[in-house]
Amino acid sequence: MIKLHYSQGSVLIYDADDWAKLRKTHRILGTLIGNTNTVQTLPLKLLPEEVLLLLDKKLAKLVDCQFNITSEMREKFEKFENDLLEEEKIKYKNNRKRQLESMMGDIVAAKRKRGDSRPPEEIFIEELEKSCKITRDIMIWPTFLTPLSMENETEVSRDEICKSTNELKYNVFRDLWEQGYYITTGVKFGADFLVYLGDPIAYHAIFIVHCVGNPDEVLHSSEIVAFGRLATAVKKRAVLATSKNEKISYITINWIDA
What we know:
By secondary structure, the chain is of the alpha+beta class. The protein folds into three domains: 1-67 and 151-163, MutS, DNA mismatch repair protein, domain I (3-Layer(aba) Sandwich); 71-131, no CATH class; 166-258, 3-Layer(aba) Sandwich (Trna Endonuclease, Chain: A, domain 1). Helices cover 40% and strands 23% of the residues. The protein has helices at residues 16-24, 48-56, 71-113, 120-131, 158-162, 167-178, 221-233, and strands at residues 2-7, 10-13, 31-35, 40-45, 60-65, 153-155, 182-185, 193-196, 205-211, 237-244, 247-253. It has a six-stranded mixed sheet. It has a five-stranded mixed sheet with strand order 7-8-9-10-11. Strand 1 (2-7) and strand 2 (10-13) form a beta hairpin. The protein is flat.
């Protein structure tokens, strides 16, 4: 059974094998939130709807690894952060130095045109110092493949995850998943979900889904027009999803230029 790690309201996957199994076997995609400054990496953050589905299908269990941060742990962490920062400063400065050495002819020539008569060595030091500053805000952190603590595991209630979504969104997600689709968040399009025929690595989304809480309420015409035009602009179908009598219903909006 896959172990889902609950941490401050988020549910994370650290294990690469679990990530691969979720994607290849269960069509659960999540979002990679680690970053090496070039590519996204683990851990994987799951949508609330993805977590609820895995729990209801008994494919995973949700645990919280609680622990107390002692003064010794805090000192160890601060030392690790300081050492890492200093190592990155040295590494980046050496890389930047090599770059500037290959460009100094052009840099000095440009400075001379602006009336700067300082020696090239002085110009080099100035350029190096102003272009290779690294602070804690922009330093690169290593990828974590395990939680900070594996001690004192406690199982987290399903109700805790329900606080981050609603019944309609989860039922729509589950219905689409059970039909064989791949589903991701649709937040970048102002919707609830993006729906794919296959893995998003190889397929574009075909539907943008917006969940409508009350099937009897009338959406303002401008909302429908905006949603339809947006979907058409990105070459997808706009879909309204709702639930009535415990059944999920879908309405597709087609935009036709007259």
